[in-house]
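Need a sequence for this fold. Nothing fancy.
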């Protein structure tokens, strides 16, 4: 298992730390892991799974409710 730092996460996801925190709070992004009093990280596999869902959703045709 690999843990991503804030810097690594930002390179992978391209969201600001504030936006990631909002998504986490809303339950729309993998939760961070508290590694120490001043250190957090994210499980790489969970973040990659989240990205895979995002990529898959762009391949599905948009559904309009007319």
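Here you go.
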């Amino acid at each position: 298992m690999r843990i991503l730092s804030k810097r690594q996460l930002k390179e992978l996801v391209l969201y600001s730390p504030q936006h990631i925190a909002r998504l986490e709070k809303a339950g729309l992004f993998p939760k961070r892991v508290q590694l120490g009093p001043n250190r957090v990280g994210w499980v790489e596999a969970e973040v990659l799974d989240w990205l895979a869902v995002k990529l898959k959703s762009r391949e599905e045709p948009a559904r309009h409710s007319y």
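For context: The longest strand covers residues 39-43.
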